[in-house]
Specification:
Elements (H helix, E strand, L loop, with lengths): L1 E4 L13 E4 L6 E5 L5 H10 L3 E5 L2 H5 L3 E4 L4 H11 L1 H10 L4 E4 L1 H6 E5 L10 E6 L10 E7 L4 E8 L4 E5 L4 E6 L2 E7 L2 E4 L10 H8 L4
Parallel strand pairs: 3-4, 3-5, 5-6, 6-14, 7-8
Antiparallel strand pairs: 1-2, 8-11, 9-10, 12-13, 13-14
Length: 217
């Protein structure tokens, strides 16, 4: 059964279009790693599309979730907390069990097997991609753009790039879903998704809806 959802009024900017998506499995909870970054913004978008959310700071928190979003922030800090909390190894194991995980910006860095940076943060190393940190420069170089995602039949996904990384190589089973100009900005590998941008900061819901679809695969 399909449900048609009109985006409700919130404090976030609104995405351009009404969207259609399949009914979600009942009682599924989406965890948002809550050490740092856009936790509230991700939760607002998930709530708009009817998902149950939970802030994840411990292994016990994660065990109640059916999927996980790793938000933006500072990848070294988040990686440190993943190690100290014991979540690093647990998330790595869950990824092998088809547990959906999506990393945005710093989250994408943490998912990558290979990182280009002066200092390599502790990271999950789950996706067969190489990511270059702060590839666009400082905060003043941040920008917004519309992205086309042919596989999802989306021509105008709203995206904010804030001190964003760039995915410089994609290997193995990883698949490019979107580029900005010639830069790879969205990659999927099985149950894993990495975006170098923030849809949640501009009120864009469609990529979160796509992520929830991974719960059915």
């Amino acid at each position: 059964m399909a449900i048609k959802v009109c985006i409700a009024n919130t404090q976030l900017p609104q995405a351009k279009a009404t969207v259609t998506f399949s009914t979600l499995p009942m009682k599924k909870t989406i965890g948002v790693l809550a050490f740092q970054g856009g936790v509230i913004e991700h939760k607002k978008i998930l709530s708009q599309i009817g998902a149950i959310t939970k802030e994840v700071r411990s292994i016990q928190d994660l065990e109640t979730c059916n999927a996980l979003i790793i938000p933006g922030g500072e990848s070294t800090t988040i990686g440190f907390f993943l190690q100290e909390s014991g979540l690093m190894k647990v998330i790595q194991q869950k990824a092998k069990e088809n547990f959906p995980i999506w990393g945005t910006c710093a989250g994408a860095i943490l998912l990558a097997k290979h990182i280009k940076a002066d200092i390599i943060p502790p990271h999950l190393g789950l996706m067969d991609i190489t990511v270059e940190r702060n590839a666009y420069g400082r905060q003043l170089s941040s920008f917004e753009a519309e992205l086309e995602i042919p596989e999802l039949k989306i021509k105008d996904l709203q995206a904010a790039f804030i001190r964003a990384p760039i995915i410089t190589s994609v290997l193995g089973k990883a698949k490019v879903l979107a580029k900005h100009k010639n830069d790879i900005v969205l990659v999927k590998e099985g149950n894993l998704l990495a975006s170098t941008f923030h849809p949640e900061l501009v009120g864009e819901t469609r990529l979160h809806q796509y992520f929830l679809e991974l719960l059915k695969s």
